[in-house]
Amino acid sequence: MIEIEHLTRRYGDRTVVRDVSLTVGRGQIAALVGTSGSGKTTLLRMINRLVQPTAGRVLIDGTDTATVPAHLLRRRIGYAIQGHGLFPHRTVAQNIATVPRLLGWDAARIRARVDELLDLFQLPPVEFRDRLPHQLSGGQQQRVGVSRALAARPDLLLMDEPFGALDPVIRASAQADLRRIQRELGTTLVIVTHDIDEAMALGDRIGVMDQGLLLQYAPPRAILTDPATPFVARLIGTDQRPFHLLSLSRVADLATPGTADGPPVAPDASLRDALALCLWSGRGALPVQGGGVVTLEALRRAARPGGAGADP
Q1: What is the pLDDT, as a whole number, of residue 172?
Q2: The pTM is what?
Q3: Rounded CA separation 55/67 (Å)
Q4: How far apart are CA 267 and CA 253, in angstroms?
Q5: Which of 109, 166, 172 minimizes the C-alpha distance to 136?
Q6: What interhelical angle do 138-150 and 168-185 show, nearest 10?
Q7: 156 by DSSP, 3-state: which?
């Protein structure tokens, strides 16, 4: 668990993070979102002390990070950035092995961990282990970058705009991969993004920042239905709010007994995807794999505040 207490960072007379406090539960994803210059990246970097706080403190599992030597702290925290930061003249395996080597793992253990992560990210080890970064696509480089951040089995992973350079289709796939793997490993994750759609897709809690202040820190549904300030409401976008609400729930949450014509929709598909399929195909109901239907009318009701369940 991460506890951030009254964290502040000043550069001379300029305060870039101002008295921020929040808690990230073990195994949760916290998404920090805001415009450029809002302080979200500085806040992230204070967690692993790439930036030293001017005031306040960060506790990880009850330990004040200021009491841990910085290089040891960073070896325990995974860190992935936009552009992936891969060493261009090292192979995929050598890149992933960076931190385990620093920690003194033996060669057999390192190789096993590299192959485990490549399998996890659907990059067959025999095919990808010895490739150089320039021989990979952007999406593959992103997967290797996250693999490297996870190599030493950190309980905490920090990500700074990791998908910013990817095209929309690859980006959506990368987000789904990250969510799946984070759930499998139980890793606590803090991610910085400027994209409210990405924050909604990934975050168990969303922190909205502006001018160094944390304006709201809450589950996605609370951000959507009860924005704390006009800035938060503008960031969400009134016209997009129904679609964001639908993206938070799955088809299985809304399925009812019945039958309908046409190809079935997966029960774990989002209600937003189901609505798009209904509108695109002109159907009033979709069959659900495994039984039941989801109707266009039910999807429309779910797009209203309070209409599709609630976050924990």
Answers
A1: 78
A2: 0.83
A3: 15
A4: 8
A5: 166
A6: 20
A7: strand
Q: Residue ranges of the chain with pLDDT lower than 50?
A: 310-312
Tell me what pLDDT residue 177 has: 79
Distance of CA 301 to the CA centre of its chain: 28
Q: Give the tokens for residue 63.
A: 């330990």
Rounded distance between C-alpha atoms, residue 80 and residue 14, angstroms: 27
Q: How far is CA 138 from the centre of its chain?
A: 18
54: DSSP letter: S
Query: For residues 151 and 96, what is the distance between their CA atoms, to the nearest angstrom?
Result: 6
Q: What is the CA radius of gyration of the chain?
A: 21
CA separation (Å) from 307 to 253, 266, 301?
11, 21, 6
Q: In this structure, what DSSP letter does residue 62 have?
A: T
Model pLDDT for residues 145-196, shown as the tens digit of each residue = 888 988 988 889 999 987 776 777 777 777 887 888 888 888 999 999 988 8
88: left (phi over 0), alpha (psi -120 to 50) or beta: alpha
265 secondary structure, DSSP code: B
Residue with tokens 């450029």: 36
Q: For residue 13, what pLDDT is reported?
A: 94
